[in-house]
Queue: 4 jobs
Job 1
Amino acid sequence: MTKAKSAISVRMYNVGFGDCFLVRIPGAKRELKVLVDCGTIAASNIAMPDVVATLISDVTDADGVPRIDVVVGTHRHADHVSGFGDTRWNDVEVKEIWLPWTEDPKDPHAKAIRETQSRLARALQFVWRQKLNAAGADTESAERYLGVAENALSNQQAMAMLHKGFKGKARRRFLAAAESGVKPFKSDALDGVTSYVLGPSKSVDVIRDMTPPKQTTYLRQFKMDTASQSVEFKAFEPFGSEWVVTTAEYEWEHLVLDPKEVNLLKEFSDTADPGITVALDKAVNGTSLVLVFELGDAVLLFPGDAQWGTWNAILGDEEARELLSRVNFFKVGHHGSHNATPKDFVTDVLQNSCCAMMSTKTGKWASIPRQPLVQALEGKTRLARSDVEAEPAAPFFLRSSSFVEATIDL
Amino acid sequence: MALLRFNKAVSLTHKAKEREKMKIKKNKYAFDLPKRRPLRIYALDPMAGKGPSNHVTVHVENELVKPGPSGERIKVVDYNATTNRYYPAVDLNDTNLLMQGGLSPMESDPRFHQQMVYAVAIRTLENFDKALGRRIQISRRGKQLRLLPHAFNEANAYYDTRLHAILFGYFQADPNDPGDNLPGQTVFTCLSHDIIAHEVTHAVVHRLRRHLLEPSNVDVLAFHEGFADLVALFQHFSFSEVLRGQILQTGSNLRKAHALLGLAQQFGHATAMGKALRSALNDPGIRLSDKIAQPHERGAVLVAAVFDAFIKVYETRTADLLRLAHGVSGAQLHPDLVNRLSTEAARIAQSMLTTCIRAFDYLPPVDVTFGDFLRAVVTADIEASPEDELGIRAALIEGFRLRGIFPEGVTSLAEESLVWEPNPDLPRLIWNAQEFFNLFVDAAAQFSSSGSSVLESRRDNDSVTSMSEEYEVDAGSDSDIHTHADGDQADTTTAHSRAVHAYAVKHAAKLRLDPNETIAAQGVHPVFRVAPSGRLVIELVVQIAQKSAAVNPDDFGGVPVRGGTTLIVSFDGTVKYAIYKPLPSGAQNAPEREAADKRLIRQAAYRQALAMKDPASAYANGAFGDDELRATFKNLHLVR
């Protein structure tokens, strides 16, 4: 146990397809605890309420009061926050809650982004459900995309906990990346630790990427009622009734399309649009907080589910690159998907033998985790996966069916 | 008529004779059918106002056109997939419409929309005809390019290769920030001149260089986009009222002429961008870099390079006029001066556009880069106008330099190093002398008789008989020895391609082709260009391409690795230029091999980076590459 005094531990709970990481940092007076995310959309053999129970007992101090210094909600996807919907969190004392700037209730851009994203999630949930129930539908693909859409629903209960819940008067910080370079900041809640925010950015381009015009015009086809949560689709007819001719009345035979062509056109104009669905997923992932914690020699990187845009900005910045080259703990982004961890980062930036943790579940989506990425990480880092049981080996000193724990020396 | 005599003198081929007969039978008023048909359109889009500068009449080639309009090359099909209905089709031959240049511009009548997409599409095709020196055969498998002005409810428009159709969406303007539109107003992408011209250009480019839809390097799709924007923007300058208004308003400072330089104003405003969708000179300092990878953004650098050149030429050529005027007039330009300036601007814009389009024939058949385009521009322009009378070529080289666009493998930006290798060591490309000759004669006859008379030869037959050869293959089917021509091509067509193919196989090494890989002759085009000096340039343009079977496409993001060569051949069969882009196995020496290897590495790296950016790949099952390729345009347009 002497080791614990001079080392940081990171515990990855086995939540299935989701993220839940508890970081313990030896402080000057007492141990500091940081919780990064708590959510799942496809549980492991352990149900989320059980994870929450374990977690709360793990953060309970000798006086019987559960305490966490900083709770981080990287972004509002269910697989990162669903666990916060549990009312038992109201008994946990929290000093600070860190959220991306897009969660700021006072920021008009943030408000517009949240609104568009959650409305879009509801519209897409509606169309994919319809698709699922339609005769002769490709249910496999409809289910896949329904899952992607539902992950982006507003998760109101969980978000309410992060915004208003927990015990004590937790301070909410809404964080954004520095305009250029990296700017360290210190928080009273994390005495001695230097933190860096590398994402999300507040630049105009990024905001635009989060609410692309294609999505906002798409949304205008739906009527939604916030109170009843109802969604209605109405095909928008651009011309007056005087222009309506039935197919039988249509006299221009040489212009009639053949049925195959009509089907193709209907496919193009289908509101159940995989392109819009994955774009929404990307947009919400784009709001991910990307955090670095530094203490002594330990440099920990939690990129949430940040995707290409954020990574591209980070890797294009020399100061950020330098900081990342010192990382010795890396939480693998987006459950090991191909587009949340740039190959250059693994091959050119990441230190050899860096400790890496991947919280994931195979089988939910065929390409997650992505095998070439897993192989690249295995070649470069010491990788622990939540879904693969392995013999404990350095730096993973503790491993049980419900979690894996890594130790990073200071 | 001069050309007609020329035709007679050189003995007409069968088809030309047929056409001639038809023409005489049809014309009871002795002369010729009217050459042009006047049609009214919005010069820019409905947002640009109701004044005379925005409601304009354009004159397009007169052809026999059925309701739709449906003509030889363009067929407007007004089907709405969102609401599953057709709208009544406009009949441009209705007497009332003939007397007034078609329907007047209005947003509420779908038939005006049909008329406008038709008119702008024909204008755009005609610009290509003129510049390329041949009639573009846009039809595929006997089917015209179809335009669906109200295809669906979406803020998008794109060319779809499977349907061989351009699909225009409509949508409601932003309720909170609609710009100059009404909140929630319906915006029709088919009423934007720029969107129509842009999409038609995509279709033409796809016809001329189908491999340009395979994103094998970062420039390929960007070139597609930039080029389509260039065509749309330069066509602005042909609307004289708009042009005069802008010159007056900006005091001849074209850099501030937002109506001319902005692309798709209404669309941009309606989607809460507060400005045009794109602008020719958005960012005065922008230079090409690896970081600019999004096709529209990267394409914008190409557009900026060309527009810098355009404005430079305009300023040089009008400096004297403005100096003369400053002694006379006050703050505002004299109307006479405005007229002179706009004539000059329109002329230079047309020359620039022609120069850019003409360069197309001088591009390698595959894996095109911006640098290749510069070299093609320079080479094509030296051929057409060796003296560079307007200074366009010099300005373009300078424009590209300022934007950081440099071709690979050239030692300097002097004309002589930019020009493609002249007089390559290749034997004459000529087969049966009579057939070779007829190929040119037929193309000449067709090119000279555009519009009405062309249509007469096929008026009872919806399939297109063409003599210029645009070949068509579906992706993946080009493993044939040579590819199939369209529809009911005459036997001579395949004879040409067979002859070119045989030539390519025989001289594979000299053409930098790998004899062990399939060789496909993909285009044999006789072209007739009139240089600014009045000189007639007659050439045969030939594309030969091959796909490497030796590599695994999965290593290249599913995009085939291709090589190929473009040949520019004179009337007597002499090969004037050979423009190579070899596979490593087709390279003939160490430097070529090194360049070819580099090209493959570049493709692999680019494809990897692209996959990284694509959110779909996380959730698609299996080979997402195919889907992505198929949907390239759908996902590209109009906005990212």
Job 2
Amino acid sequence: MKLVSFLLVAFFLVGCGVQSIPKAKNQVEADLAEITNQYKRRADLIPNIVQTVKGYASHEKETLEGVVSARSKATSISIDPSKATPEQIEAYAKSQGELSSALGKLLSISENYPQLKADQNFRDLQAQLEGTENRITVARKRYIDTIRDFNNLVTVFPTSITNNFMFKYAKMPQWDVSETEKAQIEKTPEVKF
Amino acid sequence: MVLSSEAEEFYFSGKPVFDAAGFLDQSTEDELNQTLYQVWQKGGPQLMIITLADLSGRTIEEVSIDLADKVKLGKHREDKGVLLVVAKAEKKMRIEVGDGLEGNLTDLTSKRIIDYIIVPQFRQGQFSSGIRDGALAIIQKAEPDKNYLEGVKLNQNINSFSLSSHFPIIIFLIWLIVMLVISRWAAKDPNRAYYAGRRGRYSSYGSGSDWMGGGGGSSGGYSGGGGSFSGGGASGGW
């Protein structure tokens, strides 16, 4: 009788996590794919923005070229969500952060060009860029939540036992905002027209 | 996550409009409740309007996506939900667009609805009609080839953003003034009148036949169907 009840408990404990752990891992990969999706969307908007700003502020060569080169660096780093190592993800996040900085500089210098600010095309592109940045923020927030959920499953009893026996997944590192981007976020002033 | 207590209660009301900040006069609110419910019943977008007294220190984008994730407007996989959030203290608003409507209700379109339809009226103190016209524009732009708003009087032609004639506006303004006078006369504190009136109406609407058969759960009436949001839409302020 004791053996039966012991087996039942053991069976129950092992059963915990058999489904939820792989599901959580799949969700992490899906959410990472969504992040790369939104970053790509941003990258696609940038050439237009650069062209529009160039039309009014062509002598701001350094800033314009900064955005162009940051963008090409960011788009050259791609990750496969199902096999990305933490180092790859970190490199990817860093390059996107540098692009965010360069973009931020471009938008802040456009404050000095009233005709550019009034340009309807520029305002439209800004609206689209704001929308995309918000999507990036939402995608990142969800990714962070999903990683946390996965890490909980993998490290917390009883699903941790299942993980130790069956899957042996390591805890995943959290998405970390690169240093440059952190500084940017902390001091971005609110842009008012 | 801390929402003001008014916002936390909102989705239990089972109605399209939750006007905690008191922007809407009663008849506009009733009209919107009815129109938005009917649009949803016909298979159109599921628009919810939430006004808050304040954002409790968070940004409009954070509050908006939290609310959208909570309510899950729109049917799962169809995702035709959209949320209009207005915060009184910070003077900010946001249109949060569900995944299924992003094709037509682009970030740009949402921004235009805010900047050209809602904000100009807000700046003139016309909050009720601003929200109403914005809501109707959202419905129209979300599915332009469908005519969900048949029979609804549109105060503005949203394509040209101009009025086709002045006469309806004069009538509207007279009606608005009359409404304001009546509401001021009816109660010492206009805000209290709204809340008292609304509580009374909850009980009659909750059991009335208007709100049943919505396919929702025990809360009845207007409820989300598992739709998802990705952060699309636009924000603005006045």
Job 3
Amino acid sequence: MRLKRIDKVIDLELLNLIGLDPEEGFRVVHARYGAHLLGRLEAHCRNREYGDGDVADIFQEALMRLIDPEKRDQCIASGGLILPWLTKWGYWRLDDLSRARVTWRSRVAHSVIAEGPSGMAATAAAQLVSEALVLLTPRDQRLLQLRYGECLTEPEIALAMKLTLGATKKALHDARSRLKKVLYDLGLPIEAEES
Amino acid sequence: MPSPGNFDEFLFQAYAAGVQEPSYGADSAPPLAVPKELTARVMRATKSASLALLADRVLSYGKSFGWDADELKYEAVGYETQAEKFLAGKGDPRTLTAEGVARLFHLVGLPLADWRTLLTQAVAGYVTFPASGGQALGRTSGLSDEERATALSGEEAKDPLRASRVANDFVEEVIEAWTNLKKSH
């Protein structure tokens, strides 16, 4: 726990350093976390049998997200640890790219999914939603967890995510819509589009 | 089809029954040495990334008014070439002058929160100091790229805190010019 607190302090300093001098900040972040990030992304591709053609690009894309002050704020809001934040996004991006090449299927039986939201057992629904979450960004996952898992109100979510209330409402609406689309693609008989 | 209310209910029930956050076996993977070429690629991208992101935002806002980069560059009267570079995400933003930068931001209606930190980052990347310590070789307005390269061809060092002060000074000038433009329109 103490080591985690120290890591958090160091990472907050690094995020501030990027704001002052991006090149120096990136040099230090890369030196500290680059090898770990690359190892994890390659392992993820191996585990999922994707092939490693996209890893270098995703490695760079993940790091470049730290350039955006808003993204750095998101990293801080999600706990402030740089490596897990970069890694989670990298996994999501690799999975997202794979959707064009690989058909994602649920382990929940099709006959169960076909019963729809009102007919499915809650445990099957939990399994299906857990699988769908893999295809959402870490930010969307967190928003949905706060709303439906921890039952926070929108003002409470805004505080937790360091967003305005308006931005929170929109972000939640969008996350919900994206989840709905993924569930629809997995076979759940619901309207994919939300107004 | 289920109404939005039923979908909400579905999600609350699913989460109550135990929706799991994705977990990844790769989290325990050992580190892998980053190839030199990839490191070099990342560091090259870093140098211009702040300005590239800022330019993207300006162009995105400008597009909503029907303006492209070619039309926008003429807002920086007398500094069109520098504005063109700025909108291409290249070069030291200070070559455009504080007023030129402010005019661009004001024209497309880019909010202060969307440009202040990014502009500071973009400028700080171009501020260097002689390794022996001395005054900032910060101000490069009016210098061509070749002249600037010559001026900076001596040994130079990075000093993030000092660079951020120089960058902040420029950004404050931009804020002042931008605020004046907002007041007069």
Job 4
Amino acid sequence: MLLTSSRFGSMKVDDQRAIQFPKGILGFPRHKQYVLLQPNEDSYFYWLQATDRPELAFVVTDPSLYVSSYRVPLNAEQRIEFGIEATDQVQVFVIVNNYDNVFTANFQGPLVINVHRRIGHQLVLTDRRFTTRVPLVELEEPVEAVAV
Amino acid sequence: MLVLSRLRDETIMIGDEIEITVVDIRGEKVRLGISAPRQIQVHRKEVFDSIRRENTSASEVEIEELKIVEQNLRRRHSRTRLQRS
């Protein structure tokens, strides 16, 4: 497919890379198809780009890089609904935000993606240990290299 | 908004498949029981709104902002390597 992104321009993307979000992402219920982009191979961050709206994209990252104990509980009904049979079929991402120059991630609303079936959902977690704004790293102005 | 009064143990139907029952009333607090098909998400509104707001704000992040963060992350990692050596 031809993917048009306001941030990255237009590019050809294999149809099989598309991820369906049957319920969309909260706040954006009408957009149900996304593609995961990785502009830099050594980056911690991916972009989840909507295929039908060039400006709509989210920075996402793997939460286990920051909180190794983070687990997304899925009940039996959710497992059936998402078609998940084994944990290795699931990729969890959290959406990243820049809030007052601090990069945070939404651990309360993780994205759960069934990698084989290419279907994703945004979950709403009730565990109050994790908030919508878990700081990842502080945004600082780049400084000159200092001789050690 | 449709406003209905219910006593304890009474129920409201929303469409054919969603039921809301007043399970308990204690002072200011009402306990509600909700029956809905599993594909319909049911959540406290504040949580839903909070995630929606966060998503909307997150959708505005631009490439330049991310570049600075990645630069800092790399610098942090190389600083750690320097400290160890």
